[in-house]
């Protein structure tokens, strides 16, 4: 099934002002269920802008964006937030774990935000996911007492909490040493193969990109 479809996506900042600037000039991109894609391109080329649009954090100025066959332009802000919570998982370069929470509580966050999940169910799910990323023993540890690679594995578990169709990872290994980066990448790859979860990974790392199914490069707001 088609998880993601972009047709002629354009994005301008400061619309209607004297400094209006178009930064995405008609992006076409489709991803099928189970795809594992690297998004590359120089700094300032529009990757973050594109990721924010695909992640339903920002709306395009024009063009079609469909997630799981749903045309997102037809959705209001509340419906968009709901769709985001239920279908998209996020992993960032700086994991953004909540430092006052344990690893387990961090993984529970997306379920807490979604509301209505019983506490025992959220805890059981979080523990299962921490087990999957090899961090069972760390579940009650404060997230900030863990290494960078471990924290990023918690972030992967958190991204999977709502069983998303699509995981968006913005330079997930950018802040890690080579060995940890490799482990984090391989973990995402395994989860992709096991669960069929679709991954879109922004990376500057050529070696990791070559190990993806497909590389899409954005240059100056266009797919190169
Ligand atoms: P953002 O997504 O925050 O707009 P980038 O993803 O382009 O910015 O870059 C994030 C960081 O990675 C920046 O500090 C940038 O200097 C650095 N960076 C950009 N290109 C490369 C590269 N080819 N190799 C390593 N680091 C890079
Ligand atoms: P990348 O992630 O590839 O580094 P970005 O999407 O961050 O690229 O940036 C693409 C272009 O959009 C850059 O020229 C950047 O300066 C511009 N840009 C990003 N965010 C804004 C904003 N909020 N307002 C105006 N221009 C922006």
Automatic annotation (TrEMBL):
Query: What's any GO biological process attached to this entry?
Result: lipoprotein localization to outer membrane
Q: What is its EC number?
A: 3.6.3.-
GO CC, any one term: plasma membrane
Q: State one molecular function term (GO).
A: ATP hydrolysis activity
- What Pfam families does this protein's entry cite? ABC_tran
Q: Which SUPFAM superfamilies match?
A: P-loop containing nucleoside triphosphate hydrolases
Location of the ABC transporter domain = 4-224
InterPro entries for the chain: AAA+_ATPase, ABC_transporter-like_ATP-bd, ABC_transporter-like_CS, ABC_transpr_LolD-like, MacB-like_ATP-bd, P-loop_NTPase
Q: Which PROSITE patterns match?
A: ABC_TRANSPORTER_1, ABC_TRANSPORTER_2
Q: Does the keyword Membrane apply?
A: yes
Keyword annotations of the record: ATP-binding, Cell inner membrane, Cell membrane, Hydrolase, Lipoprotein, Membrane, Nucleotide-binding, Translocase, Transport
Query: Which Gene3D superfamilies does UniProt cross-reference here?
Result: P-loop containing nucleotide triphosphate hydrolases
Q: Which family does it belong to?
A: Belongs to the ABC transporter superfamily. Macrolide exporter (TC 3.A.1.122) family.
Q: What does this protein do?
A: Involved in beta-(1-->2)glucan export. Transmembrane domains (TMD) form a pore in the inner membrane and the ATP-binding domain (NBD) is responsible for energy generation.
In Swiss-Prot or TrEMBL terms, this protein is called: Lipoprotein-releasing system ATP-binding protein
């Amino acid at each position: 099934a088609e998880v993601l479809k972009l047709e002629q996506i354009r994005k301008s900042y400061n619309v209607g002002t004297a400094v209006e600037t178009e930064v995405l000039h008609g992006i076409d991109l489709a991803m099928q269920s189970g795809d594992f894609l690297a998004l590359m391109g120089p700094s300032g080329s529009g990757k973050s802008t594109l990721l924010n649009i695909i992640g339903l954090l920002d709306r395009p100025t024009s063009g079609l964006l469909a997630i799981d066959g749903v045309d997102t332009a037809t959705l209001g802000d509340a419906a968009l937030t709901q769709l985001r919570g239920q279908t998209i998982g996020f992993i960032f370069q700086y994991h953004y774990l909540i430092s006052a929470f344990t690893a387990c509580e961090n993984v529970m966050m997306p379920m807490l935000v979604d509301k209505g999940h019983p506490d025992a169910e959220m805890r059981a799910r979080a523990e299962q996911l921490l087990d999957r990323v090899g961090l069972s023993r760390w579940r009650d540890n404060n997230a900030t007492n863990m290494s960078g690679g471990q924290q990023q594995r918690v972030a992967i578990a958190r991204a999977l909490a709502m069983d998303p169709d699509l995981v968006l990872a913005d330079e997930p290994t950018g802040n890690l040493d080579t060995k940890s980066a490799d482990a984090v990448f391989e973990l995402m790859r395994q989860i992709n193969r096991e669960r069929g979860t679709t991954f879109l990974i922004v990376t500057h790392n050529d070696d990791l990109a070559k190990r993806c199914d497909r590389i899409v490069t954005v240059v100056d707001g266009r797919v190169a």
